[in-house]
């Protein structure tokens, strides 16, 4: 009898842990609409998994039902495996209209065994041109990894598996606009960009490999509606700043703030306040 109740207790705890994990992971039916690519975007496993596909006829995409004015969002992505050259997977926040704000993750595919590029950008009031690009320290197609955007009134931080890769501090003190008034939705898409994505457009999409598929799971959002708003003041502690420096030293392959050819008259004002400490 004693061992029976032990077994039921273990089962009950396992059940409780699983329910909590499902609740934490969100549900794609609840949070997102597949809005592009008839049939190529699919929500699976009772809402726990979402896949986007691309073939010669179409790409696909989804968007959040909610809009956010500041948030911290996590998503786990597993990118298109094998020969993904020419494909681009995007995951970003954006508002609407000509003076929109936008915070971008874009994953530029590559030939088998060649590295993806993680491209980031920040738009405020319609102005972007703030690219930073990175290689990753793992194969993003072998497994799911967590990509996080923290957007609070003081700063935007991009994280990969909890490691900060880029910080964009609010530059209003140097006369540059910051996203803070326009609510944004979450968007994601998988599309063909072989005119520019891989080695600047030199390597084209190999359609014999289609359909290309990227997968998503465990979406989680912290919003101002939540009851723990510590993320609204979150900043990088000294350990995280060391991690950021490590990424920028070893994995950053492009930074607009050091592109002298592009800015012969001097760098944009926000570059001064966004140097890694
Ligand atoms: C998203 O789906 C809901 C129903 O779940 C619908 O009411 C809404 O109009 C859809 N939004 C878009 C942008 O397609
Ligand atoms: C693809 O691989 C080539 C060769 O290693 C590299 O130069 C390039 O940065 C990689 N990524 C993309 C998206 O082109
Ligand atoms: C609030 O969230 C942060 C992480 O975002 C956590 O460290 C902290 O313990 C949480 N506080 C409470 C009261 O739950």
From TrEMBL:
Keyword terms, alphabetized: Apoplast, Cell wall, Cell wall biogenesis/degradation, Disulfide bond, Glycoprotein, Glycosidase, Hydrolase, Secreted, Signal, Transferase
Domain GH16: 22-216
Keyword Cell division part of the UniProt annotation: no
Keyword Thylakoid attributed: no
EC number per UniProt: 2.4.1.207
A GO MF label: hydrolase activity, hydrolyzing O-glycosyl compounds
Residues bearing glycans: 110
A cellular component annotation (GO) from this entry: apoplast
One annotated GO biological process: cell wall organization
Family affiliation: Belongs to the glycosyl hydrolase 16 family. XTH group 1 subfamily.
Function recorded in the entry: Catalyzes xyloglucan endohydrolysis (XEH) and/or endotransglycosylation (XET). Cleaves and religates xyloglucan polymers, an essential constituent of the primary cell wall, and thereby participates in cell wall construction of growing tissues.
Annotated protein name in UniProt: Xyloglucan endotransglucosylase/hydrolase
Organism: Buddleja alternifolia
